[in-house]
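Quick start: load a record and inspect it. Here is DNA ligase (ATP):
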Amino acid sequence: MLAPLARPTPPFDGPVPREQARHARWVDPVLAGEVQYAEWTHEGMLRRPSWRGLRDDKDPRDITREDRS
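Running the structure step on this input writes:
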């Protein structure tokens, strides 16, 4: 499913930390998924993310960052 969406560079602005980018495979952002996580770090990364699955009821353009208080 992801192979046809492959691209050589990240699809977003800003630098990607070398450790995260080392084994990354980039794709066009046309699918929406759900990720459960503990919190956002100060660096803007997810702490303890867990993949929940694809969301066919959501359009990726409508996705926003969820802040937990």
